[in-house]
Specification:
232 residues, alpha+beta, Jelly Rolls, Arc Repressor Mutant, subunit A, 4-stranded antiparallel beta sheet, 9 helices
Length: 232
């Protein structure tokens, strides 16, 4: 099914385009629905030459180490792009992408994308900015696994998602707009499920964890102090 102009405009890297420019992408675009738990992209698969975008729902990006351990690389929400090697790399999927919820994926053929980029170079800058942010996050994650205590990694993880996806007022503090279940947090910061539960309990004066991965920040200064590895 071909994407509409409105759907294309909901992708963050396309938000500055005019309707006429979005119409250029339409003929070589496609929209497909996926059910929760369905694999969108399998690690090591060869990717078609398309830009992949998430229209709605959420995706979980995971990678399996040689030891067989699976790690959550990132969570993607509506408007984000993914599978960069399909357009700018070797076309081999570096990780597995799974639907965290029912979602809709929009793809744009590489040639259509490059033609619009020639006319509006700002799109390329926007895409590069996304990739640069993810590369920095990956660097910070690897560095943290080597040199930081688990509770510090947890605090930084919460800060990142609070900043990246925002919060909303709640009776006790600021509730993260994205839900982060224990298993997902554990796999993201390199600890066991049990240790993740224990760590949340150890900082319950600063952060409240509720059922289904609802996280409320009760004390921003306290969270920042933990993330800076300062005793509180």
């Amino acid at each position: 099914m071909q994407a509409t102009v409105e759907e294309l405009s909901n992708i963050l890297v396309f938000e500055a385009l005019q309707p006429a420019e979005l119409e250029q992408l339409q003929p070589l675009s496609c929209v497909q629905d996926y059910s929760r738990g369905e694999i969108v992209i399998q690690e090591s698969d060869r990717l078609p030459a398309k830009l992949f975008c998430l229209l709605n729902g959420s995706l979980c990006v995971t990678k399996v180490a040689a030891t067989g351990k699976e790690t959550v690389i990132r969570i993607l929400l509506a408007g984000e792009i993914f599978a960069a090697p399909a357009v700018f790399g070797n076309s081999i999927a570096p990780a597995t992408v799974t639907a965290e919820s029912n979602c809709r994926i929009l793809t744009v053929e590489r040639e259509a994308l490059l033609e619009v980029i020639r006319q509006t170079p700002e799109i390329a800058l926007g895409i590069l900015s996304v990739f640069n942010e993810r590369l920095q996050l990956l660097h910070d994650t690897v560095h943290g696994l080597v040199s930081e205590r688990a509770v510090v990694r947890l605090a930084k993880f919460i800060e990142y998602f609070a900043t990246r996806y925002g919060t909303q007022p709640s009776p006790n503090g600021q509730l993260l707009k994205i839900q982060l279940p224990h298993y997902q947090v554990a796999r993201s910061i390199g600890i066991t499920y049990e240790e993740c539960v224990r760590l949340f309990k150890s900082i319950n004066s600063v952060v409240k964890y509720s059922r289904s991965g609802k996280i409320t920040v009760l004390n921003w200064e306290g969270l920042a102090a933990i993330a800076s590895d300062i005793d509180i």
